[in-house]
């Protein structure tokens, strides 16, 4: 889910590829199991023909790419973070899966027109500084009649991990300063997500919701691993000297409401898919 290469400027932490290099292991351990539910739903919607050539843009630690390869497809996985690409390569080799991995800017794909049968991006393109360009590039490299699937967050109020963390912070700090809408929520409304597809030349996208659960062995385990992405690391670091107290309050809230053992926290995403016109 790493965004495309660009100058950092005013970009958020999650939009800066090099910052993802420091979160590969934690992201894979903590968050990929949740996003994998979205990835599998996207693959099911794509329904590629056997042995299709499929592109995964902003592939992160490789969950979607590995699943596509397990299903017998010819997969190319790109990401702008070098450490993410290295991790996908290692995982593919360990599993004996022939995935082509490339470090690449998803807004400027180095592939010929119509060179893929299908393409997807799970929480990747939606982080790109120019998301419409990223989706347009997927449209360009997919053959006529091929399908494209994209996943974005929706219903942030139903994202239980952040809800519990914010509640813990409020209990400790009394109030939280207002924050601008993060980049990954730019398309949280159906009409905004539909408009993204239209801007990329895919006006007839179908969109529906998918719910997934973040599973953790315990609240204590999760509290120790909140910095699984640059944005999350920045969010908790923003509590300053109160950070340990906020994390402790987060753990105690979860233990009080869900128990001290295995827990699950829900999140919702939109899955949009479209067929490239002939």
Describe the protein:
The chain has 278 residues and is of the alpha/beta class. The protein has a domain at 13-155 and 181-212 and 271-275: 3-Layer(aba) Sandwich (Rossmann fold), CATH 3.40.50. It has ten helices and seven strands. The protein has helices spanning 17-20, 24-46, 63-70, 82-95, 131-141, 160-173, 190-199, 219-223, 230-237, 243-258; strands spanning 53-57, 74-79, 100-103, 116-122, 142-153, 206-216, 263-275. A seven-stranded mixed sheet has the order 3-2-1-4-5-7-6, with helices on both faces. The longest helix is centred in the N-terminal third of the chain and has 23 residues, at 24-46. 47% of the residues are buried. The model is unreliable at 4-8 (pLDDT under 50).
* Gyration radius, rounded: 19 Å
The average pLDDT value, as a whole number, equals 95
Order of helices and strands: HHEHEHEEHEHHEHHHE
E-strand count: 7
Proportion of residues in extended strands: 15-25%
Strand order of the largest sheet: 3-2-1-4-5-7-6
Helix/strand class: alpha/beta
- Determine the fraction of residues in helical runs and give it as a percent range: 40-55%
Low-confidence stretches: 4-8
Largest sheet: 7 strands, mixed
Entry keywords:
10 helices, globular, 278 residues, 7-stranded mixed beta sheet, 41% helix, alpha/beta, Rossmann fold
What's this, in brief?
The chain has 278 residues and is of the alpha/beta class.
Write the layout of secondary structure elements.
Blueprint: H1 17-20, H2 24-46, E1 53-57, H3 63-70, E2 74-79, H4 82-95, E3 100-103, E4 116-122, H5 131-141, E5 142-153, H6 160-173, H7 190-199, E6 206-216, H8 219-223, H9 230-237, H10 243-258, E7 263-275
Parallel strand pairs: 1-2, 1-4, 2-3, 4-5
Antiparallel strand pairs: 5-7, 6-7
Helix pairs in contact: 2-3, 6-10
